[in-house]
## 1
Amino acid sequence: MPGECSNLPMTTLRFRTLLALLAGFAATPLLAQSTYDQVDPMIGTGGEGHTFPGAVAPFGMVQFSPDTDTTCVLRACYSHAAGYRYEDPTIQGFSLTHFSGAGHSDLGDVLMMPVAGDTVPFEPGDAGKPGTGYRSRYDHAAEVARPGYYAVALKDRGVRAELTAGTRIGVARYRPTAGALPMHLLLDLRSSLYNYPGKVLWSSIRLRPDGIVTGCRQTRGWAPDRNLCFAIRFSVPLTGHAFVSTETDVAYKGFQGPGRGSDAVAERAGRALVARFDFGTTDRPIEVTSAISSVDEAGAIANLLSETGDFDAIAARTATAWHAALDVLRIDAPAPMQRSVATALYHSLLAPSVAGDVDGRYRGPDNQVHRANGYTFRSTFSLWDTFRAEHPLLTLVQPATTTRDIVRSLIASREHSPDGILPVWQFQGRETWTMIGYHAAPVIADAYLKGIRGFDADAALAAMVASATYAPYAGLGEYMARGYVPIDREPEAASKTVEYAYDDWTIARLARAMGRADVAATFAKRSENWRNSFDAKTGFIRARKSDGTFRVPFDPTAINYGSDYTEGNAWQYSWFVPQDQASLVRALGGDAATVAKLDAMFDFDTSKLDYSHAEDIAGLIGQYIHGNEPSHHVAYLYNYAGAPWRTQARLTQIVGSQYRATPDGLSGNDDLGQMSAWLVFTALGFYPVTPGSLEYVIGRPFVNRAVLTLPNGRTLTVISDDLDDRHPYVGKVTLNGVPVTRAYLRHDEIMAGGELRFVMQAAPNTTWATRPADRPYSSSSAR
């Protein structure tokens, strides 16, 4: 973790003391092993990880974090999708909303910057020219980041800034570092992490008689027509303020001073607002508490008032929440692995984030206000990424109520959707239509099949069927008519065909479990549609045209947006048949041919290939691309071809090259926890290749010992005997002392708890779990 200043202010020391007192109630050995203490939020903030280091509560609505640069435009903002980039020399300010590891930028709402001194610039300035604006240089050595807390010294602003967050609030504490100085806070409503010409459609700000500042902003960015309101309260009275519009291209439509019928002290509206708040000369800290709402200012105020206490109280409460959330998994491993896995768990617990106000109100995909009754509405659904491992991980490390709320939120979003389908990529209730598939289906099916209840199963199934039969969506009409998506009618057709087929299988699984044999039969048949895109001559999944022929010319290494595949090529997508890998193995010519093709993928010489035009293609091992999701299950597929030791070798290769306990420690976008969830599962020795199958494919562990406290209160202890770099292979596996001779574990076995023991060895065990009967689930050979 970045170094901390030796001259910490007394408020920080009091906070540390409070945490120590809280921790003192636990036994010393457990405290020493606390997963909370091993988390480093700086991991992933450099390179292409796109994570943020700021303060957030578990699944918090507010992600209070520094933004190092918001001056990019459109896709140039890709590198700053999380606002903060470790390599940047300056901090522009601190805003209330961020994505963790997204492959697209947006949010960065309500940017604030503290200033000590007489001059308060209203423009951010040039990062390469210190002093030209309100941004400030900073030093990583003066940064502190841990779950729920962030601090930094702003060199050019003369302020030490500390941030913490509750579920729906963010709290900042600003202290001048050079004695008593005039203190100010700048609020920039023009700033955004996805700058689009005319992005801010309208904004407003008002100072109320009680000193609370409120306002709203309507933006047009990744999500069209998004509304967000805010409320801000200061710990000291204001001595002055200024609300300024910097619009120059249109007539000013706002107002200064109280409007007609308003009880505000001052208010203004427009498309380019910036405000200054003055606190007088002081050497004492100033606390600023903020809240947001996608509904209205009243909702933001209610959220602001819903969590009481000063900075230290909120920080301690959030630290306690993080201890509870993280310490369900205790890890014993070499320090770098310990930090990587602990941080991966932390990143897996940031989304789907709370998106409903304290009174239950939220804004839905129809841009109307609704109310959640009996659950907390959540959003930030990066479903193309997270259905794979993130959501299955939540069913093991979170109470069932978390997944229940997620499923109810998905169903509610479908009910409010103008198109009547489940979310695809949604945040703050608004749909972006980014990526492909209807991957809310496997999330819902996996939850139900694992016994999670508390939602309307009939409504869930109806939502899944509606999404899978909505003809206008991304070639679905053609898919239903032909059994594949034709490339001359719809881009990325090869990927869409195989992803639709998997989603169809999950619908069939849920329908069968609910006794709906008619629906199950329909979608089980559709799940076989992957075969229509498989080319036996080349051994690849390919795009067909509407006349039934495969599109030519064909280059399995080609990656282009809008081509035959989605963020990938034939090498990655030809393995996406998670519902029936056994049939794919047969189609490829059997075990030996499959192993050879997998090896060819990993060993492919890419030295003469240029993928620099494709932003999401990172973390290459041959044609295996760990930095993007279509490859995530591939290393485990050797198990389906009778060669589990090859899976173990590939996992050693992947973990060793794709994860580090450093700011650039993620090879690609974390994608709202998916990259991290992959590591958590893999470190424990198993992975959900096929969500909905109720099985986990065994790989190899990367921790010496781990204790997982399950949602039912039982514990699963994973022990790895003789684990080190010289012993990368699994010799044998036992569960509660009984030998495991198959290459998978069942969900009910995990939930029963007990002891999962791996005995590691230097040489591969080429006989363990190799029989066809010992291989993981495939629909064509389902047990």
## 2
Amino acid sequence: MRFFRKTRYIYLPIILLLVCLVNLASFAQTTTQSKKNVDDLTEDEVAIFYQKALDSGMSEMQIEKAAKAQGYTAADIAKMREKLSTLSTNSKSGNKVEATENTGNRITVGNLSKPKKEENASSKEDPSSMNNSKVKKSIEEQIFTLEERIFLSQPLNVYNDSLVKIYKELQLRRSRALEKVVFGADLFDTETLNFEPDLKIATPSNYLLGPEDELNIDIFGDVLDNFKVKVSTEGTVKILNLSPIYVNGLSIEAASNRIIGRLRQLYQGLNKPGSGSSAQVTLGNVRSIKVTLTGEVKFPGSYTVSSLATIFNALYLAGGPSANGSFRNIRLIRGNKIIRNLDLYDFLLKADQKDNIHLQDQDIIRISDYETRVELIGEVKRPMIFETLKGETLQDILRFAGGFTNKAYTYSIPVTRNTSRELKLLNITQDKVASFLPQNGDKYIIGGIIERFENRVEIEGAIFRPGMYALEPGVNTVKELIKRAEGAREDAFLNRATITRRQENFEPQIISIDLGKILRGEVADIALQREDVVKVFSVSNLKEKRIVSIFGEVNREGDFEYKEGMKVGDLILEAKGFKDGASYSKLELARRIVTHGLGSVSDEKVDIITFDINGNLEISNKGSQFVLSPFDILSIRKSPDYEKQRYISIQGMVNYPGVYALKNNQKKISDFIELSGGLKAGAFLEGAQLYRNSEIVGINIEEVIAKPNSKDNIYLMAKDSIYVPRIDQTVKLSGALQNPISVTYKPDFKLSDYIAEAGGYATNAIKSHVYVKNPNGISSKTKKFLFFKSYPKVLPGSEIIVDGIPIGAKKGLTTGEVMGITTSLASFSLTLIYLINQIIK
């Protein structure tokens, strides 16, 4: 549960402010006087406010209304916040106002009933908590958010009843988490682990009978009978026609012998050879006993358990040792005598239960306070807090922790130890681990080994087995190292290799060597040092990657790796051969001119070579045998008389719609209309459209058919499309109209008639901006000459569009603007007349 995800109390100032407002409202309701000055409030009155806040169930809105109703201002609230902060500081120092409800000496958490500790118990100094304060702090940071830690740091009495419950739940979660860092603390806190006794097993031979135990007596053979008897409080069992038989404190075996001996009074020769009858005594229902757990146990008290229960059963019911309880010193007291001393570490480390004996009625289990606890952190398998007994050494503690991890630094172990005044640091070497005696509060920090090698050298580059090698006899020099790496590769550059070495200040240093001379024995070998890195370079890596390129009419254009002796025919094969339209003449090869600056400077940077080639790439062909150089670029052009098939599409009201091939570049629209078999009945040629690149081309195809020499009869291109629609008997009206609508086409209607059918112009309509979009995609607008207007013709399937002024824009000039302009013109005219008169004079 995350408290601050479910409440609105996020920070302490907000909490204090709300508590202040609640108390101010509550105080105002309990007095008949007028609003009291905040400066006059005493700390006692503030304490009363605290108490009333705990009992308040008002919402935040109600708190604000109540405060405003009493006349408190923002300044008053700020002053009260200061007083509350002072009171909160005093509360932290020990002056607490108890606000929790007492419900007896026990409180219930979940399904467990445990004794309630005093509120001020946490204020007592606990040496163990002081020794492990850093550990607890780190754990609290892991299990609680910052807001939750702030919430827990406040005194309990600043919260109301609902918050007190959450406060206690968080405290319980914190205590459980802190206990889990102590080795063994989670043994009794695991829900899947159950120490309940198994009642279905055979009765232990050492089980001692007592009152309330039930015995089954079975007689079989020549005589059949059965008795179920219970041990009385006097320790006897009663069988019909026999006197009471005393069995209290006897084992099952001893009690069985005694009972069968008495049964022989009724059944002669029972359990004797040749008698023909036998008897058996077994344990039925077992009795319950009471045991008491005291000392440093989580939930001390008396518990009723089965008579088959062991010490572990009782410890599990009581929650095991508390935070200060010992796991090494658990005593079983019977009849004021210590019967057994249980060490839980024997069970935790070796699964040894020799001391886990059966309990008897009125047994007392006492868990002592721990005496010595130490902490191991770092590179151990179980970094925890461990309890030690007198005489145990650091070696024993390491055994408790499961030993070191594979990365542990074991040469020296630092120990932080508490003295009477301050901390002390000790270093324990390997030879002292077995004899070093720990003290309470010791903290052992096991570090990790350094990520470096004491005898490593490395070789990389153009050798057969690069990698890391041990610096040892036989691998002490460069030549020996290369031999161990199975030698240099054939492409190794032997004129120069490098050794990267760390100097005394750990700065890298490069040492250049002539590897070829060293391998040939011409110069002395070089000794290696720890962490040296030998790098042998490859000849191919010292050059620019050599490629040749091919572009044009091949199946795979691009760059290809250059190989010595590569020819033009080889490159064309790498490119998957020619395309169908490739030209075998005038292949162009572009070659770099490289002088490395040693020759004369020339303007020519590239050498162009042209040649013909045989399409079969025969070896005897001169062109295909042309030898390539690195970075050559070969271009293969398309044959001038090669062209892929091109098509146009005719759809709609023609006799043979479909796709038609463009035989040449001289085919026009009229040619394909004729090829399609002419028009069908009902074809609307005035609405026919030509599409090019998915866009309509404005052409009057009706005029093209009537006049093949018309300029609109254009040459068609590949992927052009002609569509001849069926006649559309509607006219669409859109734009700035009262009722944009589609109406039926009427041959005798004019443009104005159609606009009238749409309800006329809208208020924002621009009447001079009216145009008609014809079905063939060509638009016509209204023309004006002097006082005469010529309206466009409306065809079936046309669209009449009326432009409008955008919303928010002004239409024309207002009356005020017209008057302003008129006044300005009049003033200007008068001024101009005056100037002219002055000039004339």
